[in-house]
Amino acid sequence: MGQPAGQPSAQEVTVITSAVADEGKKWHELSDQVEPIKQAANELTLGVEAFFVIGDVSFGFHSIAYNDFHTFMVTALTGAVTEFDQLGGALEKMAKTYDETDTIASLNLDEIYKAS
Question: Which pTM does this prediction carry?
Fold first, then answer.
């Protein structure tokens, strides 16, 4: 007796969960790759004097704009490190849960068939 139409086989679930787990590893790796970029960006600071040009009285505004953008970028990169790692963990947990659920369902079906 074959699988009902539209129902995945156990083999398909195994392939899917391994792909989900592999994707989780990729997100952990991306988090690791962004970390040094975040650290480098965090260390890039420019004082107000870096924006001083003789005859230009708006250098203070340029400094503020740079600092605001710098803060935004460091915050975005910090979020990326954290969230990429969390996403990787969620994908790995999802794959593990699918595998555990599949095992439990298989055990339950064995019990049902033995009772007949």
Answer: 0.65
